């Protein structure tokens, strides 16, 4: 029986651990390409530092706070002994790991808001403080039997203790560290800075949705119990409710966010849909064990619908650069779900309004704890220049300046290779040669036609590259989380043919024939002389190489 319970708890723990991959992909997709490795690095930092610090002090602090504020005696040695040398190693250490993945989830929430301008050392510092102090105190007050638990405060799986705490900390941290360079004009008008990959953002969202079943369903942590000498279902009796509420909250969170985004822009915003799923999950998390299924639907709709509204306030009114919309996804959604407990619970002991008062008090305590510690931490870090990178590093990108890597090196700028000796220079500064390079920029959808035309004229070589550029084609508008921005770099395909035997004019005519639509944006063809050519396999040069 105990073994089954522990296996269940470990499976849930592993699901929550896998959410780190979701955080990594979600945040990496919403930052610029030059900062992707930095965002991935912070995920690893949060994992490593968070688990170490939670093991060193966090779990013990949670136990101490729970004992002292719950009316027990202070027993520091016993609290630390319960972590390092517990009487039941298997059970106690399994529960420690379960608490540890919750702690690093709370810390990971913050990173998405301060992305693109934060020093790696600051990731280390705030992760250590959240996982080692802030989250354990909140845990101690509620889940470890402390003062708020004694009052009847209800937070099933972390709507306030994990997500509200992390969301408030993210808002305060992003405010104090300041917006990314160029995010706002001098008059406070925000400029849209789209992330580099919707694909990664949606992938991360779906991974988080999958892991959330460990977060919520796993909190119903005991499968079996003994009753009168018989094995009976323990907390697992309400696991169906938890699973259903989690799923409905997620789905209707997407509906709420997508519907409101469409109402405001007449476009079905992909990122808001994805963020809406997460906001719905966050909102139902504190009440998934008690909410009726209509209550879960209502919470999902509210959580999704508030997302564009709150993000607009954060961006336009508060002028806070919350890169990954952390505060509306985790902060307000978690707070709303926690406060809603007395009104969505299928049944409740005592007065619902009295219970609401306790929920308000508990949320206020958790938010004040999170905001206060974060404000002190980031203020001190700014004072000693530990919080933010310098402007040059921010401009160049944190991948290269902070980590010495390029996430997408093939798109980076590299040293040019000098032209080999042996060619004479023609008028205009270009080497004269019998070999020419025909280089064209065409519409992506015309590539097939161009290839067919080139095959007909016998063009022997072809290189194709995806590029973006600007010419006579009119600019269009794009949308990133409900905000429109100008798109004046259009997707093109670069086609290169090295020509020696085939007449160059025939190759140019073939490309024009295949690529032409008669509209602006069809592209251009350029012809350049090639000063030298060498075949790598044989070492042949000149015309023989081609």
Proportion of helical residues? 55-70%
- Number of DSSP strand runs: 8
> Gap between N and C termini, in Å?
74 Å
Largest sheet: 4 strands, antiparallel
* Strand order in the sheet with the most strands: 4-7-3-8
Low-confidence stretches: 411-432
The structural class is alpha+beta
Shape: elongated
Question: What count of helical segments does DSSP give?
Answer: 18
**What radius of gyration results from the CA coordinates?**
29 Å
| Fraction of residues in β-strands | 5-15%
What do the pLDDT scores average to? 90
H/E element string? HHHHHHHHEEHHHHHHHHEHEEEEHE
Write the layout of secondary structure elements.
Elements: H1 2-30, H2 36-69, H3 76-84, H4 89-111, H5 120-141, H6 147-151, H7 159-177, H8 198-216, E1 224-227, E2 230-233, H9 239-265, H10 270-284, H11 293-317, H12 326-339, H13 341-344, H14 352-383, H15 391-396, H16 398-403, E3 435-442, H17 447-457, E4 463-469, E5 476-480, E6 483-487, E7 490-499, H18 504-515, E8 523-530
Question: Key terms for this structure?
Answer:
546 residues, alpha+beta, four-stranded antiparallel sheet, two-stranded antiparallel sheet, 18 helices, 9% strand, elongated
